[in-house]
Amino acid sequence: VRTTFGGLMIIWFNFLMWAGHLYVGFFVIFIQSLIFGELVSVRYQSYSHLRATKSLLAIPFFRTLQWCWFGSAAFYIYGDWLHEFCREHRSMHIFLPLLTYQNIVSLWAYISTFVLTVLTMKPGCYRFQMGQLSWTVWSIVLILGQMRFVHHNIANGLFWFFFPVSLVITNDIFAYFCGLLLGKRIINRKFLSLSPNKTWEGYLGSLVCTLIFSYQMSAFVARYSWFTCPADRLEFYLHPQLSCAPDPTFE
């Protein structure tokens, strides 16, 4: 089952790379939304448990507020990227009037969400609600903050997205198969108590295999302009044509 789903994920990942920069960017946003949704569900389960035991009063807009915070942050982050992208590429200047006030809209979204958060504060729930706010903010920082410039990387060439992501994928694959074939046959010591199925052979084997893969794959992918050329426009049709002078980095 794991091999089947892994193969399907690799096929889907390669299809996204073939589809183009715009679809890769949309997929990143989609994945971030799914991750945040999972974290919202985890927190809501804790809230529901406290409500069931009558340890906490009902809090209005519990999940709505979290999504408002996420939406405000996402609009600021991606709106800023889109504004810069449109400013740098003449063919996208048609969108500049709409994006000129992106910072103001983001500010008002933040203020509105903050005011709504304060208005929903209820006596006896302050500690939980402040903890909830901290949970939401840190979730946004981890999900959106560390990916702040991912769309800049995508626009500058799919290589800068494909290569690091492919290393993560292949490292996991190599760790699984190295552990399956060699696990506890060379080093009979526990690797990690939190994950007893992990082995030293899987860890070290994946490290060596990933280093070899990275050296070979980087040279292979750098041959193709589809991965190295920056996107000078956002095209909605699949696999738009790209052409550019080879960057010295890839020579």
Short synopsis of the structure:
By secondary structure, the protein is an all-alpha fold. About 70% of the residues lie in helices and about 0% in strands. The protein has two domains: about 1-155, no CATH class; about 160-230, no CATH class.
Overall outline: flat
Spans of at least 5 consecutive residues whose pLDDT stays below 50 are none
Tell me the number of strands: 0
Tell me the strand percentage band: under 5%
Over all CA atoms, what is the radius of gyration? 23 Å
What sequence of helices (H) and strands (E) makes up the elements? Answer: HHHHHHHHHH
**Average pLDDT, all residues:** 86
Number of helices: 10
Please give the domain count.
2
Helix fraction? 55-70%
Secondary structural class:
mainly alpha
Report the major sheet.
Answer: none
End-to-end distance? 41 Å
Architecture blueprint of SSEs:
Blueprint: H1 2-19, H2 21-52, H3 62-88, H4 96-99, H5 102-119, H6 126-143, H7 150-155, H8 159-182, H9 200-221, H10 225-228
Helix pairs in contact: 2-3, 2-6, 3-5, 3-6, 8-9
Q: Could you characterize what this model shows?
A:
The protein contains ten helices and no strands. The protein is mostly helical and 251 residues long. The chain has two domains: 1-156, no CATH class; 158-228, no CATH class. Helix 3 (62-88) packs antiparallel against helix 5 (102-119), helix 3 runs parallel beside helix 6 and helix 8 (159-182) runs antiparallel to helix 9 (200-221). The longest helix is centred in the first third of the chain and has 32 residues, at 21-52. It is flat and about 60 Å long. 18% of the residues are buried. Keywords: Lipid biosynthesis, Lipid metabolism, Membrane, Nucleotidyltransferase, Phospholipid biosynthesis, Phospholipid metabolism, Transferase, Transmembrane, Transmembrane helix. It holds the Pfam family CTP_transf_1. It is an enzyme of class 2 (transferase). Its EC number is 2.7.7.41.
